[in-house]
Amino acid sequence: MKRLTLYLFRHLMVATLFVTAGLTLVIWLTQSLRLLELVVDGGAPIYLFLQLMLVTLPTFLSIVLPIGLLAAVLFTYNRLTMDSELVVMRAAGLGPWGLAKPAVLLGLIVMTICYVLTLYLAPASYGELARLEGMAKSQFSTVFLREGVFNEAGDGLTVYVRRRMNDGELQGLLIHDTRIEGKPVTIMADRGRTVEGGAGARVVVFDGNRQEMDLATGRMSQLFFDRYAVDLRVFERQLSERLPDARERSTAELMHADEIPELAPFKARLTAELHQRYTTPIFALGFTLMGVAILLVGEFNRRGQSRRIVAAVAAVLVLQSASLGITNLSVNNNAFIPLLYVVVTIPVLVGIFMMLRQGIRGRGTGHLRPTAG
User: Membrane spanning segments where (predicted)?
Assistant: First the structure.
């Protein structure tokens, strides 16, 4: 029996790794398209792009793992059914719980991994991702300037770029700076480029003029230049003033949010985030129990169990959608938080009930067969 259990566990684990890796690569690809602009247009170093890609991994892996495990369970047990291996295992004495044991064990392992991700790694990753993106916006600000529109680069700073070249050069620049009260500055230049210096990244503009108006006296001063350096690192100051999002805060900080006065206005959001971290990993066990129950309960069909697989996938979509919707509602009203626990326990209870019912039926049938003979 142990060999059969190990055999099933090995197949489930390999399938889970492959499915999770495939889903992770797909999500990474969608993320890379957004982050690749830093390297292609902004001239950011490749190591910054790799860092951004790496820190995004824990942020979605806790969602991908339960789905990958469910896909592995459905694929593995359906293939074993079509190959009649499950029939042989049942004839060897393995009941429904014996067949489901490897999947449940793997589900508990994945649930533990998901708890580590959601409670510890994901919040740290969100914080590091925000820091790296803020640093990129500060040092490579021209990446975020769209051509042909007036870009709000920060409080009191508007930048217009007529055209952005492939080599990173900016053509047709207009910069309006009102950060110094009472002395607005307007800079017009034919072209510009981001350069690195000892104080960080600056935008150097060429062949233009700088106009400064003193509103108190009504006098305007004008300066024509061949080369002039402009500070556009406003994103760095915005990052330092920004309050961390609920997803960036540690679990310990969320648990003691009541003791921090400045977090009082965000108490509902922080509480919802905390309970979401508690409940989301349970889906790993719930999806596993639901998947094995749907495939192992009832009669076997060697032609496959496509209807049951479709039913399992539909149930997962409904549960995930319900969890997402309740989470959004609980952000504004914490009275919906108990529903989060209801949603994640539904697949666990349904799976256990179906397996227990099948086990009772199997024992009853086993007692009747010798008598009928």
Answer: 12-29, 49-77, 98-122, 278-297, 309-329, 335-356
